[in-house]
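Researcher: First entry.
Model:
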Amino acid sequence: MPNTASAKKRLRQNSKLRIHNRAAKSNMRSQIRRVREAVEAGDSELAQTEFKTAQKKIDRAASKNLIHRNAAARTKSRLVALLKSVG
């Protein structure tokens, strides 16, 4: 348990930020899943629109250090390859 006032405040801040980060990361993963589902369904137009949204969420997660920038680039690259296979 934190003893000082500043340590208590950091604990509160970290708890809030952890919840926020988990939500953002989960949201990003859900969007990636939507792209993959659209590709599996064979709907290239829906897949394109879902990819645009996914790309924004991946880039935002990378800029906020939720995921590594190379992991973001790799994920986007794989999604683009998946889109090209369908369309």
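Researcher: Second entry.
Model:
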Amino acid sequence: MAEIEINKPLYLSFDQGTLLLKGLTIEQLSILNDSQTWRWDYRVGAWRCGAIHYARIKKFLMEKFSSLFVDEVSRPRAVILPKVDLPQLRPEQLEALAAWDENGRRGQIIMPTGAGKTEVALAAMAQTKIATLIAAPVRDLMYQWHRRILRAFDFDAGIVGDNLFNMKPITVTTYDSAYIHMDKMGDKFGLLIFDEEHHLPGRYRREAAILSAAGYRMGLTATPERADGLHKDLDWLIGPVNYCLPFEQARDSFLADFDIVRIPVALSEQEQKTYDECGRFIRSFIINRREEQPGYAWKDLCNETGEDPQARQALKAYYLKQSIENRAAEKLRVLEDIFRLHYGQRILVFAGSNAMAIEVSQRFLVPTILSHTRKKERIAVLDGFAGGHLPVLVANRVLDEGIDVPEVKVAVVIGGQSSTKQAKQRLGRILRRSGSARAVLYEVVCENTKEIYRSRKRRKSDAYERTLHRRL
């Protein structure tokens, strides 16, 4: 078989989140030894692939066709930082940064909440001095990054998201805005930082990584695992795990000492009766359906609610059970006892639903932050909490991860998911060390309900190894 020769220029360019390679015929593709990556685009008469492959493809073409290769992809701008005001990194943070640097500046850094992942990322930005895009899962985190960059570098970063499109050499964005606009931004940044990286592998959000030509990538998280198993895709979307700090090691070195106190409470007689009736109705409905349709699952029930009144009634019974667990009257009594026990201390309360958070807020006249709380109100509440004017703060899921909360050593979980990920995230809100103060996390759960099983599942986390059982 005759050797294929290339005797005309090969042009590589960026086009709306993809790479275009011109100058290579269909017969000549085999010379790249990469036929799975490329797809022929008959509209422009060129080969096309995701921009994520840029670094690898550029290296190959430069080595094999140096005299013919023409790279038309824009080079990210160098960044001149007005100042660099960063705290001295701890040994663990230095190890994480060095590991990322040694692995080609591509990969994941996994450290417990409160371990200082943001400082590692800021140090990487100061080290590379290249145009950087930071993606965060929610707007609050996006603005938090903006404030941290301004404080550390005196650089007013651009914002893409929250109805803004102001792109600068250093820009902050949300995952949703990143994948929507990456066709316009994909060749503008040399470093991508994905905060709370476990949000990235979703069906659409992963496009934020695929449509970017950035050669340097860093992912940050305390809990990379996903229930759907898609966390395995982080290896090619960002890079392999460069550094992983076990929770035990962090606890022994720089996290606050803490106790986890599990408080079981009983439903009232009427609550338990309604709860059991709902459970029996749901079980009976599922059993009857499975006799007719073997393999009948919960998703089938949800699909039938628009047409089948019984399916709709079963779903209502399920939500009523959840409501009873989340809003049990005894939980509020225990919560009042905890407030009295820790009078004068800042207390963070995690509810299982917006309704429960609002009920706590109204009963005890304390502020709450929910997903729909406006930015100005959130800042005012967090500032008041930090200043001690507001001693209690109630939230559902919005404070579970990433968002910096003022120093707090007491947290109460009165509802939530069964995942160990959420358990670690909530525990991390109280673990930043401050002197010798000991932190405590109360977990209030209803006996004789599914909440007991969710609590047991949460306690599989290595952070829950020393759980205490106590009744108040």
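Model: Note on the second entry: The chain has a mean pLDDT of 86.
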